[in-house]
């Protein structure tokens, strides 16, 4: 069976700034796929581009962008709106401000259902109460009549998740859903997403900068850097045998039991993600890479390191053994 | 919600009392009322008779409490000039001013809301700049000048509207337009900025992610939030309109409360002046209260205050 979401060579520009430069990744049915990378690497823009939710001025193009067999690039705004909230849903990083302060929780949840599936408001409210119970909100009947300002951040994110599930979507895009929440609530939300994936057969595209989250929930990982997917692999393989120097750098920044020596400091990657102007060629990481040479300014090949594992670098898959970083 | 209303109501009563005191004191400060009522040809004896007849010989606080006491039950005394009770005069004139104010506000909202929304949705295009230019020009044009231009064009050259008087509904069109123009610039700009802010907000992104129709996103989710400051200002503007209609009522010879106030000031008819000031103040207070209630209905966060 083909992938649920298949994105090939996605490009997004805002004026002269290229935010996404040929990102390619695939989300399989029933899996959690993580887009990981540091701030400003184009993760969120990629997700918004898939949903056609780019801010004004954002231009999107792609060689291929298929969702469940439908070519997303050929859809009109109206057709796209029919998919959003219905078959593909999205939750955001800012639970405090993502709900409309002027309407009750119930009304905001119900309108998704009546919009896409028709039916009465009462039926939609029943469904909303059921889903609120499912995402672990107590007393859903009372919550339906409340306004967002009466709920905590964790509760609001649960409401967002329940709202996203109203129409039984096939794909849930979660853009840093736990970043704004405190650690205990974070863990609850991640567990909830994992349960929902298992129970509902949901596919999740999870955007995060946190490799700890990736290790816990992802089936597959795409590492993004400066608007490109520089490495894709199954999660276990990525943590066992990372290939791209950037991925290695990211992993060295995180303490992993058994991997870190007590007397050696944690790694860090010098510098920041560069702004990429038009006409940029070669590897965007070369200015921060310890292994860069003059060939890095030319076109970079995509190398295979396993069945489902590839990366974007001039170095051969076994470079690390020859030349430890 | 009820607590909010009760608190605002109490505040409104205090404001009304303050206005009554000020209105009373200011009319007394404008000189010896007995002299100005009697006129320049009056003898000292005439002035004394008038002073006694109108009770102006009593101490100031006695006069004040006598006036406020009667005003509480709707008795504002007799007009010196019109040979009628002040309450009657105001009752006859009020409908004209209210009609004018409501026509003005309706026109203002009908024009500024769509313009503001359109400018916000087409931010930084020539439509947006055109609207901004229009509001700037509208702000700069004095209302008496606009009134005269409309009279010349619509009244005299095209002859489609009457230029003065209060006979038919057509008489209210031109004054209504002029009055509306005092509020349109502020309301348009407020709608525009409110809509721009709302459309860029996270909850609108959520509404789009939910796949809602564009009309529902704009008119339900964004406008509801953008309307909150507009409602506050619209109520205040209507208050200004009722007070500020003095100029427009005079230019168009509409015999409303504003015109009555202007006439009585000119003729030292101070019971009328005091009553007009008080009536306008009470309207202003009522409108502010109405705006608070409307805002609480629009914004649930204000309901628990």
From TrEMBL, chain A:
It is a peripheral membrane protein. Gene3D superfamilies: P-loop containing nucleotide triphosphate hydrolases. CDD domains: ABC_NikE_OppD_transporters. One of its GO terms (molecular function) is ATP binding. Signal peptide: none annotated. Its main location: membrane. Residues 5-251 form the ABC transporter domain. Belongs to the ABC transporter superfamily. PANTHER family: DIPEPTIDE TRANSPORT ATP-BINDING PROTEIN DPPD, OLIGOPEPTIDE TRANSPORT ATP-BINDING PROTEIN APPD. This is Peptide ABC transporter substrate-binding protein. It comes from Bradyrhizobium retamae.
From TrEMBL, chain B:
InterPro entries: BPD_transp_1_N, MetI-like, MetI-like_sf. The keyword rRNA-binding does not apply. Belongs to the binding-protein-dependent transport system permease family. The keyword Transmembrane applies. Its main location: membrane. The chain crosses the membrane at residues 96-121, 133-160, 172-190, 226-252, 272-298. It holds the Pfam family BPD_transp_1_N. It comes from the Bacteria. GO terms for cellular component: plasma membrane. One of its GO terms (molecular function) is dipeptide transmembrane transporter activity. This is ABC transporter permease. It is a multi-pass membrane protein. Signal peptide: none annotated. Residues 94-291 form the ABC transmembrane type-1 domain. Keywords: Cell membrane, Membrane, Transmembrane, Transmembrane helix, Transport. It is found in: Cell membrane. The lineage of its organism: Bacteria, Pseudomonadati, Pseudomonadota, Alphaproteobacteria, Hyphomicrobiales.
């Amino acid at each position: 069976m083909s992938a649920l979401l298949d994105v090939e060579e996605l490009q997004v520009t805002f004026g002269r700034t290229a935010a996404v430069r040929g990102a390619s990744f695939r989300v399989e049915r029933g899996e959690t796929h993580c887009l990981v990378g540091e701030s400003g690497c184009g993760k969120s823009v990629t997700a918004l581009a898939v949903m056609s939710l780019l801010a004004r001025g954002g231009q999107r193009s792609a060689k291929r962008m298929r969702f469940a067999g439908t070519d997303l690039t050929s859809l009109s705004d109206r057709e796209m709106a029919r998919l959003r909230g219905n078959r593909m849903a999205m939750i955001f990083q800012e639970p405090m401000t993502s709900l409309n302060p002027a309407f009750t929780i119930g009304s905001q949840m119900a309108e998704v259902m009546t919009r896409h599936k028709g039916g009465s408001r009462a039926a939609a409210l029943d469904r909303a109460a059921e889903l609120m119970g499912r995402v672990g909100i107590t007393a859903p009947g009372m919550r339906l009549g409340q306004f967002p300002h009466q709920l905590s951040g964790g509760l609001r994110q649960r409401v967002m998740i329940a709202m996203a599930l109203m129409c039984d979507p096939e794909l849930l895009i979660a853009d840093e859903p736990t970043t704004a929440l405190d650690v205990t609530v974070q863990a609850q939300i991640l567990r909830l997403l994992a349960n929902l994936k298992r129970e509902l057969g949901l596919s999740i595209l999870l955007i995060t900068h946190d490799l700890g989250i990736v290790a816990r929930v992802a089936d597959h990982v795409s590492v993004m850097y400066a608007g490109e997917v520089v490495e894709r692999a199954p999660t276990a393989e990525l943590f066992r045998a990372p290939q791209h120097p950037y991925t290695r750098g990211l992993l060295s920044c995180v303490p992993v039991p058994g991997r870190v020596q007590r007397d050696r400091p944690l790694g860090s990657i010098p510098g920041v993600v560069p702004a990429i102007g038009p006409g940029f060629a070669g590897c965007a990481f070369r200015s921060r890479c310890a292994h860069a040479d003059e060939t890095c300014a030319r076109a970079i090949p995509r190398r295979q390191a396993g069945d489902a594992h590839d990366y974007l670098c001039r170095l051969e898959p076994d470079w690390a053994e020859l030349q430890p970083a | 919600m009820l607590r909010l209303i009760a608190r605002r109501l109490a505040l409104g009563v205090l404001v009304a009392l303050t206005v009554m005191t000020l209105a009373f004191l200011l009319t007394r400060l404008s000189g010896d009322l007995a002299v100005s009522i009697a006129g320049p040809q009056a003898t000292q004896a005439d002035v004394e008779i008038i002073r006694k007849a109108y009770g102006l010989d009593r101490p100031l606080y006695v006069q004040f409490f006598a006036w406020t006491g009667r005003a509480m039950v709707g008795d504002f005394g007799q007009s010196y000039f019109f040979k009628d009770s002040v309450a009657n005069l105001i009752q006859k004139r009020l409908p004209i001013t209210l009609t004018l104010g409501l026509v003005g506000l309706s026109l203002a909202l009908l024009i500024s809301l769509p313009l503001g929304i359109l400018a916000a949705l087409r931010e930084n295009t020539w439509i947006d700049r055109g609207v901004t230019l229009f509001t700037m020009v509208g702000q700069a044009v004095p209302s008496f000048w606009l009134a005269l231009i409309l009279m010349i064009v619509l009244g005299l050259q095209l002859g489609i509207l009457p230029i003065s008087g209060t006979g038919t509904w057509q008489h209210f069109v031109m004054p209504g337009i002029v009055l509306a123009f005092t509020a349109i610039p502020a309301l348009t700009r407020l709608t525009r900025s409110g809509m721009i802010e709302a459309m860029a907000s996270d909850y609108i992104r959520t509404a789009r992610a939910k796949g809602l129709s564009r009309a529902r996103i704009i008119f339900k989710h964004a406008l509801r939030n953008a309307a909150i400051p507009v409602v506050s200002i619209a109520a205040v503007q209507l208050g200004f309109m009722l007070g500020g209609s003095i100029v427009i009522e005079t230019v168009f010879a509409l015999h409303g409360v504003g015109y009555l106030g202007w006439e009585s000031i000119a003729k030292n008819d101070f019971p009328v002046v005091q009553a007009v000031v008080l009536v306008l103040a009470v309207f202003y207070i009522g409108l502010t209260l109405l705006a608070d209630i409307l805002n609480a209905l629009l914004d649930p966060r204000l309901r628990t205050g």
